[in-house]
Write a structure and sequence with these properties.
Number of domains: 1
Radius of gyration: 28 Å
Number of helices: 2
Shape: elongated
Number of strands: 4
Structural class: alpha+beta
Strand order of the largest sheet: 1-2-3-4
Amino acid sequence: MLFSTNSKNFNNKGFTLIELLVVIAIIGILSSTILASLNTARVKSRDVRRLSDIKQLNLALELFFDSKGHYPGNTVEGVSNGGEMIGDDNGPIETALLPYLQAIPKDPLHDGTVYFYSYDPVHCTDSVPDACDCNGTQNGAVLGFNKAEGTSLILRKDTCSGGDRNLNNADYNIVFFPAPN
């Protein structure tokens, strides 16, 4: 009996180590690309939520104004003239707005330092946005969020008249006239 060692006669049913390593590398590259895209989508969705929350707060402030004839302030509602964070407790601004909202919105990453919403009832504001012509005579209330994560949104930012809570550098703010006090 003769035995042949010719490779043509062997029945190869497995994968080589190199083939397995190539497949594992391809799967790793694809999964890291997907995870990076997922993180970008999370950032964008948090920024969109911030804009949506601010629009809800804006509407609540307008409803408050329609029913009371003024925006929440220090004199009647006890809102600090230095501004307050929104969504961190049951302070005066939350108490004032709660009848006009189902729930008080809170920044998705609220930490009270970088990511937060704020309301400043008395703040010197520009008569013309971005003109930095604030001379102390134009006073209005300012609502905004401190920090956005992405750059894909077109944000309305007045660097000269942001709220006191965010040191005039909110990434998004809305100014209301007249001032509540």
